[in-house]
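Lab notebook, design round three. We kept the backbone fixed and only want residue identities now. Task for the bench partner: fill in a sequence for the structure below.
Input structure tokens:
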């Protein structure tokens, strides 16, 4: 096996993530400020997944004081403590970049009910 692939496999997280594009999630992210360390919660809508393997990332978008803010999180980052799914989203696309142009109620994603999702 290639040395780079061995290192990548050792860095991957074992836990599988059960969220997808269109879901609203809370990302618990470890922030290090000098000597102190705290966990910051970033809640928003997943608008895309990119790449594969160790470099896989997901983008979370939220509205903060009327301005859209996006943050990219690496899935296999040791700084991500956990990811909680708040709501299932009903979407038909893989990339939700069109949400950037929507304002107010038009930017909402319909919630997927438990009966239809098979949960």
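Proposed sequence:
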């Amino acid at each position: 096996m290639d040395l780079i692939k061995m290192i990548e496999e050792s860095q991957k997280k074992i836990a599988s993530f059960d969220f997808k594009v269109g879901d609203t999630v809370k990302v618990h992210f470890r922030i290090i400020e000098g000597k102190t360390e705290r966990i910051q919660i970033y809640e928003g809508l997943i608008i895309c997944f990119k790449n594969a393997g160790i470099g896989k990332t997901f983008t979370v978008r939220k509205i903060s004081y009327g301005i859209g803010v996006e943050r990219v999180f690496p899935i296999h980052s040791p700084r991500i403590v956990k990811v909680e799914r708040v709501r299932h989203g009903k979407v038909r696309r893989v990339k939700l970049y069109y949400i950037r142009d929507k304002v107010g109620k038009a930017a909402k994603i319909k919630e997927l009910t438990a009966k239809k999702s098979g949960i």
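Keep this in mind before ordering anything: The mean pLDDT is 88.
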